[in-house]
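Morning run. Coffee first, then this:
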Amino acid sequence: MTDIRSSTVVITGGASGIGRLMALGFAARGATVAILDVNLEGARIVAKEMQAATGREHAAFEVDITDRYAVAAVADQVREAVGDPDVVVNNAGIISGGAPLLETPDELIELTMGVNVLALFWVTKAFLPAMVARDRGHVVTIASASGMVGVSRLVEYSASKHAAIGFDESLRMELAELAPGVRTTIVNPFYIDTGMFDGVATKVPWLLPILDAQHVADRVIDAVATDRRRVTLPRAVNLLYPAHFLPVRVFDRIVNALGVNDTMREFKGRVPPESQVPS
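And here it is:
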């Protein structure tokens, strides 16, 4: 079990969405939280929210997590401000989907891979050594149900989340030998009702509902507290993964019958600001 009451938690992308809700939730349970985000103003606002609610100081740092040198530098600042973290939540993510692959700009594909995949390595490598040294800690990776099942018009995002699942699984295997007291959790939610997924739809809401962001945040915090290794929301998504063992034509028919490949047709979402798009 992870004692959240006395822990230090680092959350990437904590200035908004479920990152913000997780930050507030961890703080409410007694943790000291440090937010890493490209949006420093937003991160500071959340830090003030946490301080107002808990009476304790929390921290906010500006960083481009796709830049490994910047991550290493901010990690030193985090350690100086709040100490070595007990929990690292790799939450930051972007989506540029809604268009077929051939209509997706190369720059947005690179940005998606930088934020959703490479940053997992840079952030985890920055904080993991201290966890290994004391054989205690927790690394959370927010992936997606689309990392378990591919989705039309979501090629780059889905591919990045498949990578995130592989990252967590491989890291879990390594840590079992290297530092068994350091745990990992992978989170695979269906679409969440944040601005990031504005416009997505579900054909079978009774089976694959659009998820409430607060519910997802609470489930992640509970998973850390109980050392749960995998969180899939809703549970019905778990039924799709074994379907990969069926013939491809059968698998595709099941996915299409559930309307999975229609979910992104009316997608609006949030387009990354120009300042975040590599030139």
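The longest strand covers residues 182-189. Good start to the day.
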